[in-house]
């Protein structure tokens, strides 16, 4: 996906904001593929079936079930921490932080 982004949009600065935006569009396009009439309702239904989709820019997505029942629309519970270094954002650590325990505590479970 990164190569596609560079090829199709060579003048766009390639940073984490561009990555996130591009990945989001790819996910919605994947969910909308095959829908006859794309409406908010049909797209929401289609998004809820996305499972095992890899954008290549983060965790493999699974929108088929929420990992924390108290937050039914939260699907990604692992967060990456970035730091600014020499004018760029870089990962502070290679592994994401799993926020599931904190979310369960906050959600009362």
Question: In words, what does this structure look like?
Answer:
The protein has 109 residues and is an alpha+beta fold. Helices cover 36% and strands 16% of the residues. The protein is built from 4 helices and 6 strands, in the order αααββββββα. The protein has a two-stranded antiparallel sheet. Helix 2 packs across helix 3 (40-47). It is flat, with a radius of gyration of 16 Å.
Summed over residues and divided by their number, the pLDDT gives a mean of 88
Tally of structural domains: 2
Percent of residues in β-strands? 15-25%
**Which strand order does the major sheet show?**
1-2
Order of helices and strands: HHHEEEEEEH
**What gross morphology would you assign?**
flat
Helix count? 4
- Uncertain runs are none
Straight-line N-to-C gap: 38 Å
Radius of gyration: 16 Å
The total strand number stands at 6
Largest sheet: 2 strands, antiparallel
Helical fraction equals 25-40%
Give the helix/strand class: alpha+beta
Features:
two-stranded antiparallel sheet; two-stranded antiparallel ribbon; 2 domains; alpha+beta; 109 residues; 36% helix
Which helices and strands, and how do they pair?
Elements: H1 2-8, H2 16-32, H3 40-47, E1 51-53, E2 61-62, E3 78-79, E4 82-85, E5 88-91, E6 97-98, H4 100-106
Antiparallel strand pairs: 1-2, 3-6, 4-5
Outline of the structure:
The protein is an alpha+beta fold and 109 residues long. It is 36% helix and 16% strand.
């Amino acid at each position: 996906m990164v190569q596609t982004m560079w090829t199709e949009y060579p003048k766009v600065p390639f940073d984490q904001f561009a990555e996130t935006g591009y990945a989001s569009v790819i996910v919605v396009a994947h969910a909308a593929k095959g829908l006859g009439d794309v409406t908010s309702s049909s797209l929401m239904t289609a998004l809820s079936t996305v499972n095992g989709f890899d954008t290549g820019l983060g965790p493999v997505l699974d929108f088929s079930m929420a990992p924390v029942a108290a937050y039914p629309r939260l699907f990604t519970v692992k967060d990456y921490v970035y730091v600014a270094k020499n004018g760029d954002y870089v990962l502070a650590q290679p592994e994401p932080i799993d926020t599931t325990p904190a979310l369960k505590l906050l959600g009362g479970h």
